[in-house]
Design brief:
- The structure is a single chain.
- By secondary structure, the protein is α/β, with parallel strands linked by helices.
- It is built from 4 helices and 10 strands.
- The chain has one domain.
- The chain has helices spanning 51-66, 71-74, 125-144, 156-168; strands spanning 19-26, 36-41, 44-45, 75-80, 83-88, 91-95, 98-105, 149-153, 174-178, 181-182.
Amino acid sequence: MLTAPNANGQIIDTALPNTTGRITAVEGQGVNNAAVSFATTDSVVVNGTRAIDLGQSYEVGVRGLYGDVSFQQRQYTTLVNGQEVNGVADTVTSVAGRDTAVEAKYVDNWATPLRNPNSQNGNKPWAVAEQQNMLDQVIKYSSGFDGGVIYHTNSPELAAYYTQVFNNAGITNFRFVITPATK
């Protein structure tokens, strides 16, 4: 829920922890070169040298923004296309009294990850599968949580691209937030 700027010109988002009031604008990075803007939270620290280590430490940092939630509380079951599916969110929170999934998506360099269809390997079968996993995941969260999902990412490019992908798929029960990562 973005409110109007306060007296200092900052946008305050009461649904997010540690919101700095900054808005990150990304011009021409979404599908069809759409300009998009995202709220920005305080940064989290990442550690490691491998992408998996950086991603896991980013997830831990994002979870820390919301406080301790047990594994059991993060589990969910929902129906998607008539099929029962199970999953585990990175964490969960309540937004306006509605259960909301929270997911962390770390990107070291948007030019290279599998989730970027324009990366060197973006059209390989395993990359296309990972891109489809992003869409499948938001569908599950939209079905399994009344409040949908808040995606935290350090990549405005990932946020812009998948905002358009999700919107083009008719999914609206999500939002992206930029949570910078510091090494």
